[in-house]
Amino acid sequence: QVLDFFASLMEETGFKATRLDGGEYGDHLLLEHEAPGKARLLFVGHADTVFTPEEDWPFSVEDGKAYGPGVIDMKSGIITVLYALKALNKLGEIPFAFTVLLNADEEWGSPNSRHYLVDLAKDTDFAFILEPAQPDGRLINTRKGVGKFDLYVEGRGAHAGKSPETGINSVLELAHQIIKAESLANKALLTTMNAGFVEGGQSAFIVAPSAHAEIESRVMSPEEHQRVEKGMADLPKTTHVPGAKVRVTGGFHRPPMVRLPGTEKLENSILEATELLGLTIEFSLSGAASDGNNLSGLGVPVIDGMGPVGGREHSRDEYLELESLYERTELLA
Q1: b/e per residue, 249-287, with b = 16+ CB within 10 A?
Q2: How far apart are CA 274 and CA 328, in angstroms?
């Protein structure tokens, strides 16, 4: 329904509109315009939110801010790119080729649409991601890569009082393994490790037969991406509880978004535009991930956070600063 609405806004433009099969996540919308011999720009936004359709939270406006599910993350970002293109279209033929991908699964990690990005990246010279700007208005030129690992330990149950020596304590082994995993963090390089979920055992009276932990990592560079993946893969090579078996699965599903050849050209173009508009805008790092991570990993120069200004994403306090909606649309155009 959301994509139907966005598609209806563009009907009079004549841009080619295509629905892409999104599998279980809902379809994606592709808008295209050709201009032979010109650079091709790719604009990416997502139509999904973390909120369910049953969320009892109506849209509202108060004191210059709009509130509602997904209002900044990222319905307003999509409005920004669509109206920038509508404005340019009214001024005459748009003098560059572009593709707009509005996907339906970004909040899930883009499990389906990431495969379309691989093909789109082949013909793309530069990309803009319409995620919101930072709450202070800064744009985003680098993002951390994100990895998720599952750590499994298989032990053997036993009576904790009568025959503990016959058991193999998986929880104890898991504790050692979590400490090893956390030691892969590197504060100087902004590499983080987080054991955010742990489960194991049956009760205090039983030597724990199995245990499991979910560990997240965020990194700034491809080198750290590779180092952490190797470090996690090496965990099972050393165990601390005799007989315990350790298994690690998972890896990085979002590579870091880094400054590539061509990124500086995008930054300079934006700074020239801000000067024309009398704005002051800076660039920043974000620890959160987006589709910009995947495009950067495919070699495409990316500027992210091109949407409006707001904050408190993924909470009932999510808001959009309404004045920034026009400002950022004008900037993008």
Answers
A1: ebebbbbbbbbeeebeebbeebeeeeeeeeeebebbebe
A2: 10
Task: Find out whether 227 and 189 touch, Cβ atoms under 8 Å.
Answer: no
First-last CA distance in the chain: 26
The pairing of strands 319-321 and 310-311 is antiparallel
Q: Are 290 and 267 in contact (CB under 8 A)?
A: no
Q: 115 in helix, strand or coil?
A: helix
Q: Write the pLDDT tens digit of every residue in 273-324.
A: 999 999 999 999 998 899 999 999 999 999 999 999 999 999 999 999 999 9
Backbone φ/ψ region at 251: left (φ over 0), alpha (ψ -120 to 50), beta: left
Beta strand segments in the chain, E: 16-20, 28-33, 40-46, 60-62, 65-67, 97-103, 126-129, 139-143, 145-154, 158-159, 192-200, 206-207, 210-219, 245-254, 283-286, 302-303, 310-311, 319-321
Element (H, E) at 174: helix 170-182
Distance between CA 256 and CA 147 in Å, rounded? 10
- Max Cα–Cα distance, the chain, nearest Å: 84
Beta bridge partners of 97: 40
Q: DSSP letter at 50? A: S
Cβ-contact 217, 191 below 8 angstroms: yes
The burial class, CB within 10 Å (0-12 / 13-18 / 19+), for 2 is: middle
Interatomic CA distance for residues 70 and 76, integer angstroms: 8
Q: What is the DSSP string of 207-238?
A: E--EEEEEEEEEESSHHHHHHHHHHHHTGGG-
State both tokens at 63: 């004191």
Answer whether the bond into residue 306 is a cis peptide, omega within 30°. Answer: no
Token couple for 326: 């026009």
Q: What are phi and psi of 309, to 5 degrees?
A: -95, 140
For the segment 219-238, what is each residue's pLDDT rounded down to a tens digit? 999 999 999 999 999 999 99
Residues 129/303, Cβ–Cβ less than 8 Å: yes
